Amino acid sequence: MDGSAAELETWMSSHLQVVTRVPSAEASALGAARVRRRLTLEEAAARTGLDPDELRALEEGRIYRFPSVDDALAAALVYATALGIDEREARRAAGLRRRRGWSLDRWLAALCFAAAAVLLTWFVAVPQLRDTLAPGAPASAGSAEAHKQLPPPWEIRVDVYNGTTAPNVATRLANQIGGPLAYRLGSVGNASRLDYVQTRVYYPPGSEAIAERLAKQLGVETTALPSGKDPNRLVVIVGTDATG
Questions:
Q1: d(C-alpha 219, C-alpha 214), whole Å
Q2: Span(s) in the chain for CATH 1.10.260
Q3: What is the pTM (predicted TM-score) of this model?
């Protein structure tokens, strides 16, 4: 055998070894999964409904055994499902890294954002609650009374009397009190005396807050009455200061 023939024989021998070298079933992902489940090729075929030779071809990577690549992929999917291969096992067999959750930096950023939102709510959205619970904040009955909600004007009766000799001044003021200010009008007429100088809002005990509100709306002063049983009744007497 000359040199050329020897070289040709060596070349064919090496290539024939490559072509005929077939991977073992245990070396493939599907084959290893079947072996871990202690199934024979025939038992696995019974689970899938495929031919044992087709499963062997899948385990050995011989997809040319199937009519097309799509058929081979479909058979591999059926085989993997029948073996109960889950996502973690499939990713490990494919050499893919496991999906990671949030990193420590992302968790810290989320916690900082949540803390900032809580602080913003505490110091901006509920300032009254903040002031009430702040250390050293004085608690007084006066502050509680100031925040007490007053009854609406239409629940308060206002009697208007003319304390001067000028005509119709009580009617004009009553129209303002019962109209734009929306109070409930009571008696409108002349006072027992006609020498009042200043227009004032008179209130019974316990009605100072509603009297102050009406007086501020009219731009006048208030005066407490010595008695009175209706806390929602006020009296306005018009003085000469309103006739000029």
A1: 8
A2: 22-94
A3: 0.42
22-94: CATH, from 1.10.260, 2.40.170, 3.40.50, 1.10.10: 1.10.260
Cα gap 14→5, rounded to integer Å: 14
The pLDDT tens digits of the residues spanning 8-36 come to 566 555 554 444 444 454 567 888 888 88
Numbered ranges of CATH 3.30.70 in the chain: 153-242
Question: What's the token pair of residue 203?
Answer: 């209130």
Written as one string, the DSSP assignment of 107-165 is: HHHHHHHHHHHHHHIIIII-HHHHHHHSTT----HHHHHHTSPPPPGGGSEEEEEE-SS
Asked whether the beta carbons of 83 and 44 are under 8 A apart, the reply is yes
DSSP annotation of 96 reads P
Nearest-angstrom CA–CA distance, 130 and 126: 6
Q: Which pLDDT tens digit goes with each residue over 88-132?
A: 887 777 776 555 566 677 777 777 778 777 776 666 655 555 455
Residues 6+ apart with CB under 8 A from 211: 201, 202, 203, 222, 234
Indicate the CATH number for domain 153-242. 3.30.70
Separation CA 210–CA 81 (nearest Å): 80
* Cβ–Cβ under 8 Å, residues 185 and 215: no
214 with 178: CB under 8 angstroms? no
